[in-house]
């Protein structure tokens, strides 16, 4: 019989640290602060800046999409400060799942971990579809369009049967992530530098073409539209948490993880706001509702060469988003398996490359199928719920841990506690309330499946349970 105490059992911070320090099958600690920051930027800058900026401007916020990013950034920033404290305190793979396990107990940790498995996998699928759109645009500009049957999921266009490039993109990234982590990190860093250069290029080239009249009216859908837009673009400002899943591969995690979390969010948010203002300044916002709005905007200005450069950079940049979130998904899966909540078969590292190759390849294959066969809107509906829920939990956990373990060694302390975490909780709950009912229904179905898995398997095989029996 499961008692309430069993469900609330926690894994001590000292146990978490010693577990990774003494493990004979540990990861290779090779990542520095800039590589970690690049993983965070890899998750942050991609579909949001190249696709969502235009779509949300056209359908929900108008030129005030820049305000939508700022609102989403406040919620994300408060949570980022909380993540930074935990990243320095508990430098262990698993991110929000592991932090919850240390503070709020096994059941809450399971729920968060299970949710994030879905969220991260769906992000990879959504981003793969966006990546495919820009890749196909680049091929078309080169006179090499794909046949209709391979150009998109069923129902997305005439003759569409499968989004072939989306599937191949997900599988390719999964293959790369099974190799040495530093190889993937170097590739990711190169892609991140390329896409940041492309965003700056777009801003500099676009500035002379900005017309102030395109910003009028600035808020055509009212503030409610800006708020709804913030709930959507939040998809674009939570990728920094992916870098905390690589904690056991960082050379100096207590120092570098907090720095990387905050640095990646600040850089990304600044670029998002400026990019949003430039894009809505060079093109009337109603014209931006398409899969490649940046390309479309510059093509309309008679600058096809800029459009081609943007397509190439978007393909490269969005690849790094796929890499960051698939890396996060596999490592959360690994951490849950190592704790016994999922079969231990998943936590066996590759004997040569020291990567969690089994969950990486399985997650890559599943996301490839979803990306190939489902439209982007259907896949994207579920993405934000799990992440916002994780943010609520992390912000609450910071407040709890400050009371229960005030003297625990922290390399970074969230400022203005409890105010900062309360702001994070409040904004996250508000953004959750703006999401559609169908997303909640599907989320609850996934949650019920997860609870069934936990009570039928996880609670019986939990290593912590066996230690305390």
Automatic annotation (TrEMBL):
Topology of this chain in the membrane: Multi-pass membrane protein
Residues passing through the membrane, by range: 33-57, 64-84, 96-113, 120-139, 159-179, 191-212, 218-240, 261-285, 305-328, 359-376, 382-401, 413-432, 438-457
Compartments where located: Membrane
GO-annotated cellular components: membrane
Domain of life per record: Bacteria
GO molecular function: amino acid transmembrane transporter activity
Pfam families assigned: AA_permease_2
UniProt keyword list: Membrane, Transmembrane, Transmembrane helix, Transport
Cross-referenced PANTHER family: CATIONIC AMINO ACID TRANSPORTER 4, INNER MEMBRANE TRANSPORTER YGJI-RELATED
Name the record gives this protein: Amino acid transporter
Organism: Methylocystis echinoides
